[in-house]
Design a protein that fits this description.
Layout (H helix, E strand, L loop, with lengths): L1 H52 L3 H28 L3 H12 L4 H11 L9 H18 L3 H4 L6 H20 L1 H12 L11
């Protein structure tokens, strides 16, 4: 009985851990996409402003740091949200919703945490906890990590990032000297890089 319960506990934790890793991977990757897209788009906006207004070197340097900070903030925000969504309770709740099990997985996880030695404690509460954990394990095993955490949140950030890259590519093909000038002015704000002129 004890070894069977231990196997069930281990299988439940493995199912939760698989979904937890997927939550973190999708969330952080999505945040990375948003961060890079935000950084690029903001830099492009600042470069356009420099083209129109001939910004001072200190302002261009501030623009670069602002873009980097904005991208890092988007990544950090997504990472923190993913971390909060990756607790055992949050993961169990997510699997419950996908499997439509009416909260049985979350209840099993709660009882597992409340009665960690339920197999070694031959009480009625321990026996009921063991049954609930077994049922939660069976239900959780039916739901794959990809089903519980679809990759859909990755689409929008990488569409935005791809769009920014396409815009840069078009500018590079249509006006390579413009792109080279603006790159030099922002990569080395205090260098001797005259404004672009056609």
């Amino acid at each position: 009985m004890e070894s069977g319960a231990s196997v069930s506990d281990k299988r439940l934790l493995e199912a939760l851990e698989g979904v937890r890793r997927r939550v973190l991977t999708v969330g952080v990757t999505s945040g990375g996409g948003w961060g890079l897209a935000g950084l690029l788009l903001l830099l492009m906006l600042f470069a356009w402003g420099d083209l129109a207004l001939n910004l001072a070197p200190a302002v261009r340097l501030t623009c670069v740091f602002t873009s980097i900070a904005f991208g890092a903030a988007l990544l950090l925000h997504a990472s923190l949200n993913s971390y909060r969504a990756s607790t055992h309770r949050s993961v169990a709740r997510r699997i419950d919703q996908v499997s439509r099990s009416g909260g049985q997985i979350l209840s099993g996880v709660d009882l597992f945490q409340q009665f960690p030695g339920h197999a070694a404690a031959p009480t009625l509460s321990g026996a009921l906890a063991s049954m609930a954990v077994d049922r939660a394990t069976q239900l959780a095993a039916r739901v794959g990590a990809a089903t519980a955490v679809p990759a859909k949140p990755l689409v929008l950030p990488f569409v935005a990032l791809g769009s920014a890259m396409v815009i840069l590519g078009v500018v590079a093909l249509a006006a390579p000297r413009l792109l080279a000038t603006q790159w030099s002015r922002f990569a080395d704000p205090f260098g001797d890089h005259p404004p672009y002129s056609s």
